[in-house]
Structures are given as C-alpha cells and as structure tokens.
Task: structure prediction
Amino acid sequence: MADITITASAVLASSTATVENGTAGAAVTAGQTVYLSPTTGKYELADADGAADLRRPRGIALHSAGIGQPLRIHKEGDLTMDGLTAGVTYYQSPNPGGIAPRADVLTGDYVTVIGVAKSTTVLAVDIQFPNVASA
Result:
C-alpha cells in the first residue's frame, strides 16, 4: 500500500474541529501532516522516520501554503477529505507530510496514529504520539 491520495480541494474541517493558525516553514499542500518546529516556530512537514521533532505531527493542513504564508491546521475532530477506507486507522507516513495505513509504517519508523476513517470521506482526527519505533 502507499500514502493515501488526497485532493487538496476536498479537505474541510468540521464546525466542531479544533484548529490552529500559524505560518508555513515549508511548502505545504492541504491534507499533509505538519509539526511545529521548535527552532523556527513554523509548521513544517511531519515524517515518521525523521528527527525527533519531525515525527510528532501537530495537525493536518487545511489549505496549501508557501514558505512564510499563513497556515491553518486541523488538530482534532472530524475532517472531510478523500482517499479513505471506512474503519481503517491511519498513521503518520515515513514520507514527509503523508498519511498512510499501518502496513506502510516500517521497522524503525515512529508509530503515530493520525485518526480513524468514519467513512470514505471523514477522518476522525485524534493524533496519538507514543514516541515508540515500530519493531
């Protein structure tokens, strides 16, 4: 399997979602996972096999943004998007900004739950980062 394919225009937070605003420190596309860099204070792409800060996603980008542009992220709650399979739990991918099923989290990658698909178009986002590498 591979990272889910997300249509940027399909990404939409629910009215009850927890969101946060900040600044992009990298080019980000709607639907990609981001972490908050402690060095720059900006959102950059999360990565399951990256350095310590990179592997702890803070949320999912709600729109695309270039470096230095404002960025709104979805931290928790229902997120409308596409590319999902109902009932599947999705994880931070070892590909920067990617979201993938468990099978794509490889040995040595850090296991971070992003959320569970309630349907083919709704992800219940509840990021869980136990800081444990996959064996």
About this structure: The radius of gyration is 13 Å. Strands lie at 12-13, 18-23, 33-36, 43-45, 59-61, 70-80, 89-92, 99-101, 113-117, 122-128. The domain at 8-128 is CATH 2.40.300 (Virus Head Decoration Protein; Chain: A,).
